[in-house]
Amino acid sequence: HAADAHRTDLMTITRYVLNEQSKHAESRGDFTILLNHIVLGCKFVCSSVNKAGLAKLIGLAGETNGEEQKKLDVLSNEVFVKALVSSGRTCILVSEEDEEATFVDPAKRGRYCVCFDPLDGSSNIDCGVSIGTIFGIYMIKHDGEPTLADVLQPGKNMLAAGYCMYGSSCTLVLSTGSGVNGFTLDPSLGEFILTHPNIKIPKKGKIYSVNEGNAKNWDEPTAKFVEKCKFLNDSSPPRSLRYIGSMVADVHRTLLYGGIFLYPADKKSPNGKLRVLYEVFPMSFLMEQAGGQAFTGKQRALDLVPKTIHERSPIFLGSYDDVEEIKVLYAAQENKE
Ligand code: P6P
Fold this sequence. Notes:
Largest sheet: 8 strands, mixed
Shape: globular
Structural class: alpha+beta
Radius of gyration: 20 Å
Number of strands: 13
Bound molecules: 6-O-phosphono-alpha-D-fructofuranose
Distance between the termini: 59 Å
Number of helices: 8
Strand order of the largest sheet: 2-1-3-4-5-6-7-8
Strand content: 15-25%
């Protein structure tokens, strides 16, 4: 039985990646080492997020020792940066928390570039809403000095992407380019165990996920799509609106239940709000690997070539058929122009 297998044949995330790695003759285990350091960061954040409320409650936060308590996203960023540098497998780090990219010291340099948001949605910590770490990984293709050009690549060049959601359980969803798998942290073992093998997103969903508060600023295709979700003009089943306001939580639900997540452009933010390198690309990579798709309003999200490391893009991602509906509406607008 599966349960027995879990008990005795523990498919940990490390073992899973080693299996994957063995399929690539040229691999030297570097990716496994890199991933283990990302996993270490996720375990730290999981433990800290779970204590955050308690820390505030019983005054563990900075007051007692006078030192200003670091905000959890700043602390998480420091942990990830130190873990990634100490792995000896990275050469460039792009973090949502750091204005500039980190170029790793030559003595500790490896072949991977990691773009990450250490604690996305952290404004939701105080009310206990799930938040997460999002990451995408490029491999440097040359032996020369790393430059920003090595991370300003289209998302389709990523060789892996994933997120870790800190919620009722700590779930790490990962793709290394051959499907999507979910691993849940077993705190008694301190290991991420395979719990969601080969995740496939439903081809069509019944949920749309968008911040309706921005409706007055939407462009016509987005407004038309949302209108259609609410006031059905055919016999299609009614849809539900689910919007948590924490990207990792909204995307995780979309991946497992189907539907579409939208953060469109609007008059106030012509490029939307979400960041290309460490929000849009990793989530788009996962959606495509799970059989869904991701669109910017103009093109396939993974074809976008970012010009700066904190660039934003509108994003529509999720069930294949749902995103197709949006693409048709944007194509119709294109033809009118
Ligand atoms: P809004 C959280 O701040 C975040 O970066 C994402 O996690 C989330 O999807 C989005 O912003 C929510 O933005 O404008 O709807 O509050």
